[in-house]
Write a structure and sequence with these properties.
Blueprint (H helix, E strand, L loop, with lengths): L3 H8 L2 H13 L2 H8 L3 H15 L4 E4 L2 E4 L1 H21 L12 E6 L1 H6 L1 H11 L4 E6 L4 H7 L4 E4 L8 E9 L1 E6 L5 H5 L5 H5 L3 E4 L8 H8 L6 E5 L2 H8 L5 E5 H4 L7 E4 L8 E8 L6 H15 L1 H4 L2
Parallel strand pairs: 3-4, 3-5, 8-9, 8-10
Antiparallel strand pairs: 1-2, 5-12, 6-12, 7-10, 7-11
Helix pairs in contact: 2-3, 2-4, 2-5, 3-4, 7-14
Length: 313
Amino acid sequence: MIGMHETNIARADLNLLVVFDAIASTRSVSRAAGRLALSQPAVSHALRRLRDLVDDPLFVRGRDGLAPTPRALMMISPVREILDSVERVLADGDFNPEMAQLRFRIAASDYSMMTIAPACVAELRRAAPLSTIEMRHAGEDTLALLESGDLDLAFWGAAIPDGPFRALELFREHYVGLICARHPLAIRAGQGALTLDDYLAFPHMVASFRDPRLSPVDAELEALGRSRTIGVVTPNFAANVACLRGNDLIVSLPARLVARVNLDHLVVFALPLNVPDYAYSIIWHHRTERDVASIWFRELVSRCTKDPSLKET
């Protein structure tokens, strides 16, 4: 006698999981139908079949479209993994980037958009002109989006997260200082003669990333029993550089970013304290570890950070 579990498996249809995944991603039957090139009644019928199969409504109407039930939330990641596995089984082992029509979805910070993204975009246009890069601002939901399959990759400047994630270190980064060329400390800074007392004598401008941890600069100052005065807080590094000219503020920011900005009327200097270098990486969910296209794209990103000919676009 076939048990209930085996009966449900027998009744299951892979197309139902495809429909479920599309609705979970779009939160809409009509948008899911558009994504799958199906009629709306066909998608609604498939959803009804799946609801009957699992004995759960799966999606209910909410303010921003269809909201997943607790049962649906439990299914989203496993269903995505099943579909990814099927795609890998059926995919041609010979990946041809020139003919591929893929979409690579990346979470990127202000820093990575300014320093890494330009070379990556240029190289993708050269090597895979039919494919697309979709960049989204990195945030508190980045890991959840990687886990749900809504992101393929994320640039990462913090400690590598635990769980189902893999990482590849791209390079080591360090901080430098930046001041206006008319700053009272400009001459000493240009001569490499700035002291810690000089550095702390003027207000600083910092970028706020909603991270409760101390920045590497402030962590090192705290270890020395010192602190800096914060005069201006902006939402990103680019705003810091834009606001720096014509005032007595000091900015400390990653060296690769400084190499990408217009330094007219600005002075770059080595920080008068030992702020450790840190790793800058890419991270991804383990389910794409062996996916041919994903491997190719990760290698492209890595190459763009190491090949000097690809850094300037």
